Amino acid sequence: MSRTEPFQSSETALIIIDLANDFVNAGGVIADAGGPEYQARARAILPALGRLVEAAHRGGVTVVYATDAHMPDDSELAKWPPHAMKGTQWAEIVREVAPRPGDLVIEKRTYSPFVSSDIHRQLQARGIKRLYITGLHTDCCARHTSGDAFQLGYDLVWVTDALQAFTEDAHRQGLEYFKSWYASDPVRQLQTAEQVIGDWAGVRAEAMRV
User: Fold this and answer.
1) Helices (H) and strands (E) in the chain, counts
2) CATH number, position 192
3) How many separate domains does the chain show?
4) Which residues lie closer than 8 Å to 144 by C-beta, 6 or more apart?
5) pLDDT tens string 49-71
6) Residue range 104-117: mean pLDDT, rounded
7) Dist. CA 173–CA 160, nearest whole Å
8) CA–CA dist 186, 109 (Å, integer)
9) Residue 135 falls within a domain, yes or no?
């Protein structure tokens, strides 16, 4: 799939970044660092994510969870306190968008899963060429994931209301960064969840008529 080719579900993945309990729910290290206002905004993207996941499963889009599962010696923990530690409830994906059989769950130990996991190999094995980026945080893990994916040649779409950051300003700055550095067609590549779902449904309906 080139950057101008139409949507093909078999070559597409929905990437959900760091929707772990630690990042969303009170009591988590990251969630508590952001405070109640951040927690409310993080939870506010869950309905859109839920609809995207449902649409992905209906349309044959691969659903990929790329989420922190840290070990005590991870380099990231020199910057941040221990969080989303592997094997704990805080590293588990929030129940509202919990993985289903057949979904791909990638444990990462760095901002980008392309650095600390085999996600690229697994995506290549599935023939994935286009990634729809969602999750936390727009200006950090989503940004680093996007940068690596862009340089590996993936076509990227950012779902603007299914991403969030510690602050609304940071979220908007993250979106602007994507637009400035990675997007060749911002109208196509920065979309809302409903726009994405509509596109997927339209392609699916057209395929059923053929």
Assistant:
1) 9, 6
2) 3.40.50.850
3) 1
4) 110, 111, 112, 115
5) 999 999 999 999 999 999 999 99
6) 98
7) 12
8) 30
9) yes
